[in-house]
Structures are given as structure tokens and as C-alpha cells.
Amino acid sequence: MASTCPNCGKKLKWYNMKAECSECGVSIPNFNWEGRLEEDAEKSEKKFASFYKSMNIFSYSIWGTKLRRLRIILSFLPAIGFILPWAYLKSDTNSIGIDLLGLFTDGKSLIDVISDFFANKSLYFTNMAYESNSGLLTFSMLAITFMLLSLVFIVIAFFLILFTFKHPKTKAMVVFDALSIAFAVASSVMFLVGLGNADSQTAVNFGTISLYNISGGISWGIFVAIALLVVALVSNILVVKAPAKSDEELEAERLKKKAEKEEKERQEDIRKEKEREEAEKNAAEEQERIVAEAKAKLEAKKKKKEKKD
Questions:
Q1: What are 205's strand-pairing partners?
Q2: Angstrom distance (rounded) from CA 234 to CA 168
Q3: How confident is the model at residue 309 (pLDDT cuts 50, 70, 90)?
């Protein structure tokens, strides 16, 4: 119930349960319902207009130009680079392939190493301390960490394209693309530094994964991944530098398209109405012709009968 009567303004208490005001007798729920209905309709229209405006800006920001359509594709492609092999470690016992799902290398995959790390964190840190935090295990874990950070930053950059659609000239994606490239390069460097120390270590324990007489190297996947990240960075830079339409221009275009669509629909309705009227006219004329023919036949039969009589 309203706190005051909308007609006379009397303050209503919590125990005023009747629909009618005790002062002026007006029905509070039904008071000026037509005006309230119009007001609600205006509010709904404004909300829909705001929604359509936002969706128009969103569509332009994502795929409004050929460059932006290309950008959204090129910004997604780097994800492929993270399922490719970045490095490998081989030994007389086990082998570890540093690719996310283990699709390209034999032995333990990156998922296996990560799972083993979280199951045996203390063992990993103990082994790192044993090699004075400067051996193959330490640098390999740093390389994996940088690889995962690179993945996180490129994912953030991709979703920023969607979330910052109201700011089509923002450089946020460029920053995160650059960070992703930096961590990918750092990851490759850590792998190389770690492999450089492998000759001095006969055995290394990755938690419960033991390696003996270790050899390894950088795989082709890391170069593909970095190349895709660079392409994504370049595409975002080109979008930032390219001219962009203002919100006012986009809204004017939307309203123009809306008016053209409404005019087209109006013309179509006029055409259909004319066709309907023409069809009704033709049907009426056909009916008149049929009636006239029927009358003529009856008249002919009548005259023929009169002649016989």
C-alpha cells in the first residue's frame, strides 16, 4: 500500500488495509491508472531504446568492420598455441612433454605435472631447495608458471574485447597481449636455462616423477604460440589506430536503419492492402458476372417457355 494517498496526500498507517482512502474515498490501486500505464509504457520504451543502443555499440565493437571481425578471430587463435608442445624432457625412466594435453608427446603431459605438483607441493619445494633453487626442476617449474600466466593474460585480453565494447579505442587488450608475449618468451628462456643445467644433474625428481640421464629441448609449438600471440597483438594495435565511429554516429545509423525498415514494412503493408482490395474487387466482379450469367440463363429459359406456351 502507498505511504500516502495519491489523491489527497493523506498519510496512511500500516493498519490502513482498505483499498479506499479513509479521507477522500478514492480507490488507491485504481487511481489515475491510465496515467500510470502511460508512464510505465514510456519507461519501458526508454529502457528498450537504451538496450538497443548498447547492443548496436556492442555489435560494432566486435564485428562492425572487417578489421574488427578479423581481430576477434586472431585474438582467439592463440589459444591453439597452448595445446601445442612447448618443450620436452626425456630420460631413461620417464619423459615429460610440456604441452597442455599431451597430444603431441609421449610420457607425462603438463596436466600430469600440474596434478602431481598440487598433490606433492612439499616434495617439489624440497627438491628445489636441494638443487639450491637453480637447477632443472626450479627453472622448469618457472617455465611452466610463465606459460600458464601467458595463457591467463591472453584469455583476459580476449574477454576484454567483449567487456570493453563501450570503449572501442581502449588499449587494455594491447597491454595484456604484450604481457602474454613477454611471459611466453620468458617461459622459453627458463626452459633453455633449465636444460643448460641438465648436464650437471644425473637425476631430477619432479615430485613423484623421476628422471635419470636427462635430455630435452624446445619444441616447435612454442614458436607457433608466440607467433600467434604477436598476430593477436598486431590486430589489436591496428584496431586501436583505425578510426572508430562515435556513439552518436552509431545511434544515428541505427535510427536510420530502423526508419528504413519501418518504411519498408509500411510499403509492404500498403502493397498487401492493395492486393487484398484488388482481390476483393476481382472477387466481387466475378460474383457479379456469375450472377449476371445466371440471370441471363433464367431469363432465356423463361422466354423459351413463354414461346412454347
A1: 210
A2: 16
A3: low
